[in-house]
Task: inverse folding
């Protein structure tokens, strides 16, 4: 297919078909639309236990195009160099009731699915981008996690409660990140709010403390390349490479802290909880071999701290190729999963984050496990019984793991279709590439420029994850998203 023929491809229809093929529902059923019509206003405070924090300097930081705002952040200086962090999470459960048609659809898909051409939201947009979104200038119900962090980044105290909040400034990763890194001005939305500049600097400072302590304890410093298709008039015109910045790190570190507090809070209240875990790496021996090829050493058994030390050394020694090394480590790590932790049960932990207690609780507009966790939290706060039986939680943990895997496959397949469109007309060209997968199912490589992934159909023998090679583009199948390479010499 030549580039001028891209207009003949209906990317949105293809994305819908991929959703169906993976057992996900691309459209909301009529029962959901009927329920949504009866929702006309955001939730209001419904009890004396709801704190009124609307006058505080809350702000949101998210992607440039995000309209489903799940969290607001705030900080407050304390004596002896300590800082209190407040993270408000949208109270989605206040409008999405357990067992409703909206809830059952969300439970089926379990997550919003993001493709370059189309977003398939977990919740109807009237909710996720309006009534349950923490939009600027609007009063909203939330669940707040309050954490006091010492000067060395350790957690001194924490509390979880319900609160009424008001977003004073909608900010973006790009804008805040550039400003924090000295490469741009303070975003206009922040400059209009008195005290917001000091707020953001304080939040960045405490986030760096949290990050430093986590990495000292073995959290992995990874920097993978995420390429999103740039689609204009139904045509793929480019791949936009997303890179981590200080604003993304700020939110990530706060969310990791909140998810840890959430897990421990439910444990203290003797509630069963959803945990997000990553077990010890599936292919540690290959990580050891990669380190050896780079003149470094890793121990024979999985060791998060040793792996983090290795990654830090390589990032300093070769920052240009560090994203490629990170991708290899991620591929070798194995996928995460949801499990249910019963009261008193020893936690499995999250190897990549080097944390023992980790729940998903910070994105209830986008992820169903977070909505489940929010319901558990609200019940625990109120002193009520769990809204879920042990059997329900066991089912949901397995179901959410499977559906998340399906949604990831949708995103990858549509990304491959988009990448195939971008590469149409370039059959026979040679590219530098990195081996990203090698198993009995086949060998995959990622081209460095543009950042697209495909399968090796010839010359793959002897290759393993992390190898850098030259490849030739052999064939493309747009409809199936196949991009095939052979080894070039």
Result:
């Amino acid at each position: 297919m030549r580039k001028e023929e891209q207009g003949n491809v209906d990317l949105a229809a293809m994305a819908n078909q991929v959703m169906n093929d993976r057992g996900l529902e691309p459209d909301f059923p009529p029962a959901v639309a009927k329920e949504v019509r009866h929702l006309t206003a955001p939730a209001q405070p419904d009890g004396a236990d709801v704190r009124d924090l609307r006058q505080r300097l809350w702000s949101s930081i998210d992607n440039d195009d995000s309209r489903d705002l799940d969290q607001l952040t705030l900080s407050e200086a304390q004596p002896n160099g300590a800082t209190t962090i407040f993270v408000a999470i949208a109270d989605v459960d206040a409008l999405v009731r357990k067992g409703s048609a909206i809830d059952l659809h969300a439970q089926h898909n379990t997550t919003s699915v993001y493709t370059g051409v189309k977003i398939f939201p977990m919740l109807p947009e009237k909710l996720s981008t309006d009534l349950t979104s923490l939009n600027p200038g609007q009063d909203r119900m939330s669940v707040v996690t309050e954490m006091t962090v010492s000067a060395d980044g350790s957690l001194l105290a924490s509390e979880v409660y319900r609160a009424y909040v008001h977003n004073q400034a909608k900010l973006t990763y790009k804008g805040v990140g550039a400003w924090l890194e000295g490469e741009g001005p303070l975003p206009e939305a922040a400059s209009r709010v008195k005290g917001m500049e000091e707020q953001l600097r304080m939040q960045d400072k405490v986030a760096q403390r949290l990050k430093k302590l986590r990495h000292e304890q073995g959290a992995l410093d990874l920097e993978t390349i995420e390429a999103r298709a740039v689609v204009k008039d139904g045509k793929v015109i480019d791949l936009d490479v997303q890179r981590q910045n200080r604003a993304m790190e700020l939110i990530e570190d706060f969310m990791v802290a909140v998810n840890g507090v959430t897990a421990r809070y439910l444990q203290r209240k003797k509630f069963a909880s959803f945990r997000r875990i990553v077990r010890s790496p599936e292919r540690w021996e290959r990580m050891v071999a990669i380190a050896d090829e780079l003149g470094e050493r890793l121990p024979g058994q999985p060791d998060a701290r040793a792996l983090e030390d290795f990654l830090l050394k390589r990032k300093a020694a070769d920052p240009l190729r560090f994203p490629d090394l990170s991708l290899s480590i991620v591929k070798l790590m194995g996928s995460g999963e949801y499990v249910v932790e019963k009261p008193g049960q020893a936690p499995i932990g999250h190897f990549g984050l080097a944390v023992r207690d980790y729940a998903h609780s910070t994105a209830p507009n986008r992820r169903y496990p977070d909505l489940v966790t929010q319901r558990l939290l609200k019940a625990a706060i109120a002193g009520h019984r769990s809204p879920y039986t042990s059997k329900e939680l066991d089912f949901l943990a397995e179901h959410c793991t499977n559906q998340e895997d399906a949604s990831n496959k949708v995103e990858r397949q549509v990304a491959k279709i988009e990448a195939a469109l971008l590469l149409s007309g370039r059959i026979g060209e040679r590219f530098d590439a990195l081996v990203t997968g090698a198993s009995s199912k086949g060998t995959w490589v990622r081209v460095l420029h543009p950042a697209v992934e495909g399968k090796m159909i010839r010359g793959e023998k002897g290759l393993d994850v992390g190898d850098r090679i030259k490849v030739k583009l052999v064939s493309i199948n747009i409809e199936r998203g196949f991009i095939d390479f052979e080894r070039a010499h």
